[in-house]
Amino acid sequence: MKVVDVAARACLVEVEDAVAAAALAAWVRAVGLPAEEVVPAARTVLLDGVDPVAAREALRRWATDDVTRPAPLVRLPVHYSGPDLARVADHWGCTTREVVDLHTSLEFTSAFCGFAPGFAYLAGLPLERAVPRLASPRTRVAPGSVGLADTWCGVYPTASPGGWLLIGTTDAELWDVDRARPALLAPGTRVRFEAAR
C-alpha cells in the first residue's frame, strides 16, 4: 500500500488490485474515517476531505484490523442467451454450458462504479479467462445485459453503447434513485450470478 498526498485535504491510496481497493473503501467507511468522499477505482482509493496525516495513521491499522465485516451479497438470476456466449466459449476453448458453469461458480466483487449510473466493474474473473472487447462497439446494448471484457464482468443498467461480450441478461434493477442506496452493486458488494429458471 502506498499513500500519495494529492491536495491539502486529500490523498490517494495505491493498492494491489480492484478487490483490495473495494475492501479498503468498505473498511474506511465502516471504521468511520472522516472523509467527505471515498472513491475506489481499479487499483486506488481516493480519500477526499481528510487530514492526510490522520488518514495515514488510520490506514496502518487496515492490514491488522481483526474486525471483519462481510460485504453484502447480491444474487443475480441470468438468462444465459447473450449474442456473444458462443464467442466466449470459443475463446475459452469450451462449451457454452461450461461458460455458464464457470460464470455461476465465481464470486465477484464490485470494485467501483463508472461509465453509467449503476454500472459496476465486477472483479473476479480469473486472468486466464480474460476476453477481448468487440473490435467495433454496439450502438445499443439492452438494459440488464451481462457482459465480459478483459477480466471484468458488468451489467448494463440502462440502454447504452457498449463493446463488452454479452453472455446473458438479468431483470434486476441496477439503478433506482428511490432506493436508500441507488446502486444495487455499490463498491464492495459481493455478487453471485445464477442461471435463471
TrEMBL record:
Give all residue intervals belonging to the Carboxyltransferase domain.
1-185
List the SUPFAM superfamilies hit by this protein, alphabetically.
Answer: Cyclophilin-like
Gene3D superfamilies recorded: 3.30.1360.40, Cyclophilin-like
What are the record keywords, sorted?
ATP-binding, Hydrolase, Nucleotide-binding
Q: Which domain of life is it from?
A: Bacteria
A molecular function annotated in GO for this UniProt entry is: hydrolase activity
Annotated PANTHER family = 5-OXOPROLINASE SUBUNIT B
From the Swiss-Prot or TrEMBL record, give the protein name.
Answer: Allophanate hydrolase subunit 1
- What organism, scientifically named, is this protein from? Nocardioides pinisoli
What does the record give as the organism's lineage? Bacteria, Bacillati, Actinomycetota, Actinomycetes, Propionibacteriales
